[in-house]
Each structure stands twice: as C-alpha cells, then as structure tokens.
C-alpha cells in the first residue's frame, strides 16, 4: 500500500478532480484504490455520488452526522474499516467527508499526537489496497498536515494559470518541516491541470514548471475540458460520464504514467 497526498493550498487547482478521476482510472486498470476525502466541503464524496442519499441542508451542528466519516476517524478514533464505503466503481473505495470536519481542526488542537491521527488510522487499515489517494482542503492547516504526515509521496496539481507557482514555496517549506515527523515523505510528482491550448500563458506555465520540477512533472497535461467540470454534479467519474472526452483520455494516460512511476 502506497499513500499519496494530493495537496496545494491554492484553491480550485484540480485537487479533487484529480483524486476522483485518477483514482477511478487506476481502479479501472485493476488497482485497488482508496480515496480519502479530507476536505469539509466534501466535494470528492459528492463527486463520487456518495452524499446524494443524504440531505445536506437539514444537518445542523448540534446533531450527529447521518453517516460515519473521516471526522469520526480523526476525532473519535473510529477505525477506517468501519468508515469506508464501496463506490459504484469496482476497486474504488471511499472514506467520505462531512461538513462536521470543518470544526475538526479546532477540536484537534489539544489532542495528543494530533499530527499523526490519520497516519495511525491508515497503519491499522488491513484491507487489500494498492494506492491511497488523499484529497486535501485548500490550506496548510492540521488536516493537510495529517495527510502529509500519513503519506509516502506528495503530488502537487498546478493549474496552468497566472500566479500558478505562487505559494508553492510555502508548500515545499511545509513539506520540509513535516520530514521532522515523517522523514520518508518525497515529492512524487507535479500534475499540470486545466491547460488551455489557445493561450500562450498555459504553455508558459508548463515550461516554467518543467524547468523547476524537471522529471517530477508528469508528461501528461490535463486539458481544460468542460466535461470534467460537469461529471461531479452527476456523481460520476469522467469515465462514466463521457469516456470519449479529452478529460477522460488525459486521466487515463495519467494513470498509465502513475503506475509506471509507482
Ligand atoms: N481540467 C479541467 N477542466 C475544466 N474544469 C476543471 C478541470 N479540473 C477541474 N475543473 C473544475 O474547476 C473547479 C476546481 O476544481 P477542483 O474542485 O478539482 O479543485 P480543488 O483544487 O479541489 O479545489 P478546492 O481547493 O476548492 O478543493 C471545479 O469546478 C472543477 O470541476
Ligand atoms: Mg477540492
């Protein structure tokens, strides 16, 4: 079992889209994949069709959540084996998130070993899994720190946009600090996302990233493709939603590259 954290504290760069569709593609290639939703927004959980059975609006903070989630794993030490769900795709398992996770960082502050809660939970998870992919919220708070501490490799999605590289220094600095608790953490790769072939800017970002990260940058570049942004609202991966789209093709290629690398 190899564990990957997909992180970039910049919002909207394609973290969730990548965890969902790279995870689905790896699963289609026969790998056993566990995706972990570590974002209180729970976009990954809804993008995989999990939360549609629950009415989000009716939940308020004084009630217990209608299902077990990563919140229970971190705060109540519920084992992952009691929380994971099978998705409607073969080989693809999910640890769902819930809005209650929004308060978890504050609840965790006074907990013992608060940086290693997820690491401990994963080390006790005995299901047969090849890859764990962890989707992070857009911050470098305790949730992301838990993911970095629990992982072997950091994967950074970078949007082919202006200011794409801004803030990366901070992420790399945090990664260095985490090595104090998790000395094995490596940069596994960088994924360029939302590439727009019509703009010179996109190509410039690709050049800059390749120059800086060298062979760490995946050869596959994910294009901007509206089908990728539509699929989650149907609770589907891009392969269920539109297998012939450029987005599906890119995530299929990325998975092939990923398996070769890891
Ligand atoms: N390659 C793409 N082409 C078109 N739209 C995309 C692509 N990748 C992601 N999107 C869309 O861009 C938005 C941001 O993507 P996503 O949610 O994956 O980013 P994120 O990094 O997880 O965001 P957050 O930081 O808020 O968690 C979403 O609406 C998503 O559907
Ligand atoms: Mg996200």
Describe the structure.
With 262 residues, the protein is an alpha/beta fold. It has one domain (2-261): Rossmann fold, CATH 3.40.50.300. It contains eleven helices and seven strands. It has helices at 15-28, 43-47, 70-75, 104-108, 117-123, 142-150, 168-178, 200-213, 226-230, 238-241, 246-261; strands spanning 2-6, 33-37, 85-86, 92-95, 131-135, 153-159, 186-193. The protein has a seven-stranded mixed sheet, with helices on both faces. Helix 1 packs across helix 11 (246-261) and helix 5 (117-123) packs parallel to helix 6 (142-150). The chain is globular and about 50 Å long. The relative contact order is 0.20. The protein binds adenosine-5'-triphosphate and magnesium ion (MG). Residues 11-17, 39, 43, 138, 193-194, 222, 224-225, 228-229, 247 line the site of adenosine-5'-triphosphate.
* CATH class category: Alpha Beta
Instruction: Return the average pLDDT rounded to an integer.
Output: 95
Q: What's the structural domain tally?
A: 1
Distance from first to last alpha carbon: 11 Å
- Summarize the amount of helix as a percent range: 25-40%
Write the layout of secondary structure elements.
Layout: E1 2-6, H1 15-28, E2 33-37, H2 43-47, H3 70-75, E3 85-86, E4 92-95, H4 104-108, H5 117-123, E5 131-135, H6 142-150, E6 153-159, H7 168-178, E7 186-193, H8 200-213, H9 226-230, H10 238-241, H11 246-261
Parallel strand pairs: 1-5, 1-6, 2-4, 2-5, 6-7
Antiparallel strand pairs: 3-4
Helix pairs in contact: 1-11, 5-6
